[in-house]
Specification:
By secondary structure, the protein is mainly β. The protein has one domain: Elongation Factor Tu (Ef-tu), domain 3 (Beta Barrel), CATH 2.40.30. The chain has one helix and nine strands; from the N terminus they run E-H-E-E-E-E-E-E-E-E. The strands form two sheets. Strands 1-2-7-6-5-8 form a six-stranded antiparallel β-barrel. Strands 3-9 form a two-stranded antiparallel ribbon. The longest helix is centred in the first third of the chain and has 10 residues.
Length: 152
């Protein structure tokens, strides 16, 4: 566990595009659901994960990318938008002292992303469905220090 850094954050409301809650006609079932087959084709199966993201603000901290577990370049997942680059990083959601859920930090590279940008303190997390999470809840995650660094 020495490679893991814990950080506390708060769940914030996102754009609702990843999960489809925004009811954007371009992404009717949500962007994550639309992207899953493209990631699976490149070696990352997200079928065990909820098709949406947990937007975790770690302010006043920020994060710095070191080495992604997965990086996929030029993923053309939407017929109406340009190809994008994506990276994924290991994380663990600490729900209780003895209950940890493995997840991934989902990082669409801002330089290739056409819209819906995130502030520098927001981590987008993909995980299996977790009940009882609500906006403004405190959440502790652990990130792999070989992949991503937390700047306090």
């Amino acid at each position: 566990m020495s490679d893991w850094i814990k950080v506390k954050g708060w769940i914030e409301k996102g754009y609702g595009v990843a999960s489809g809650q925004a009811q954007n006609p371009r992404f009717p079932q949500g962007t994550i659901e639309m992207q899953k087959p493209f990631f699976r084709g490149r070696g990352l199966d997200l079928s065990a994960y909820f098709p949406g993201t947990i937007n975790l603000s770690i302010a006043p901290c920020k994060y710095k990318i070191k080495q992604a577990k997965y990086t996929f370049k030029q993923v053309k997942w939407s017929p109406n938008d340009p190809a994008e680059d994506f990276s994924f990083f290991d994380c663990q959601i600490v729900l209780e002292v003895d209950r940890v859920v493995n997840g991934l930090i989902y990082y669409p590279h801002p330089e290739t992303k056409p819209e819906h940008f995130q502030p520098p303190d927001i981590l987008e997390i993909i995980a299996p469905f977790i009940s009882n999470l609500e906006y403004e809840n405190e959440l502790v995650i652990a990130v792999n220090s070989q992949q991503i660094n937390i700047e306090y």
